[in-house]
Each structure stands twice: as C-alpha cells, then as structure tokens.
Amino acid sequence: MVTRGSVRRETCQIVVVDEGPLAHLALRAFLRQAPAFTVAASATTGAEGRRMISRLIPEIVICETRIGDDCGLELCRWIGLEHPGVMPVVLTSVDDVNLASAALDAGAHAYLLKSSPLEDLLFHLERVAEGQVIVDDRLGRSPAGRGGRRTRFDLSPREHEVLEEIILGLDNRAIAGRLCIAHETVKTHVKSILRKIGARDRAHAIAVVLGDARTGSGW
Question: Which of 54, 119, 167, 169 fits a 20 to 30 Å CA distance from 45?
C-alpha cells in the first residue's frame, strides 16, 4: 500500500511518457497483470507529461531518452526540482553506458532497456518502488556496441529507427524527412523490415511487434 501525502493508495501509480504508442500499449497490457502497479496516465510529449505528472503526482514516471523534440533526461531533472517525491525511470531502446550514467546524474532511479524481458521490467520496478536505484544488467551487451540497439528480429539500428517511425504512423516521405535519409532508402529499409519480421504490410508489422512485446520477447 502506498501513501502519497494524505492520499492512501492501494497501488503504485505510473505515468508513461514516450512518443511511441507501442510503449504505452505494451506497458498497459503487461502491468494489468501486476496488481501492485497502475498506469494512471500516458503522454507522448514532454509538455503533456509535465502536466500529467503535476496533476497526478504519481509514484513513478517511465520515460524514454528522447520524447519528440524533448529530452527524457531533462524531464528527470524537472521532476527532481518540481516533484522530488516522484521517481523517474528511463526505459529506452538506447544501450549506452555513458547515457545511463548521465540519466542517473539527472535524477533517474533506473535505466532499463526495452530489449529486456518484461518480467525483468516488473522486477526492476518493484525494486525502484522500494527506493533502490537500478541499472539494467544487460546494459553494454548489445552486439551493436555502446549506444547501439537490439531487437529479437535482428534489425539494424537504422531499421529499428524506421520501425519506430512506422509505429508512429508516418509514411515513407515523412520518415525520410525525420531521419534525414533519401525516400528510396526508406523504401529499402521498410522492405527489409517486413521481410525480417515476416509481415505482409505496415499494419501487420505493427501487430507482430505489439504481440512480441506482450509476450515479453523483447522490443
């Protein structure tokens, strides 16, 4: 049972701040099985996240290192200044030891990888709720090296970025603009992603990846 000021809560409330809808869907689906935690709200921008945090004063905030044009580490610093009782947790695709150290310096209570099994995420969140500071034990093991990304579909770091943009609903031209690569290059990456995932089209790819996240195989 959690006490927040004069409010007595049965569960630990979480606010998720991540621009990718996959993160919100996967976390909500998984944490429904964890009675100790409740996803109280979700935000896809840093500004929206700040509003939600100030309104709800959750126990934990889960955020990415990049939230659109905002920085997750800046959000952690803001939480420390404005709501010091709230515990920020960085849950990210970026496997980077230096970034993890910077996140902890910014006030994060944990630096966790999205490529880890969701059961491990639950274990780490329980430790954070107890007041511990956690760094994912898989950090630095990515075959892409320091700062690289890993998925079970063997996507390259660039393919992973393109897949994230597909999940956001962007078309090839928009993805090319955001990633500063040629339109034809995006088309090539999309074809490779669909082949590696075994998907018929973009919608099917999102469904396949979402199903993979729900089974805890890594995302």
Answer: 119
- Same domain? 120 vs 174: no
Which amino acid is present at 148? G
How many angstroms separate the CA atoms of 157 and 148, rounded? 7
DSSP-derived 3-state class of residue 145: coil
The reported pLDDT for the residue numbered 94 is: 85
pTM: 0.64
Q: φ, ψ for residue 21 (rounded to 5)?
A: -60, -25
pLDDT of residue 205: 83
Last residue of a domain, one of 74, 103, 135: 135
Residue 86 tokens read as 């709230």
Check: CB of residue 73 under 8 Å from CB of residue 101.
no
What gap in Å lies between CA 13 and CA 42, rounded to an integer?
Answer: 11
pLDDT of residue 60 exceeding 80, the answer is: yes
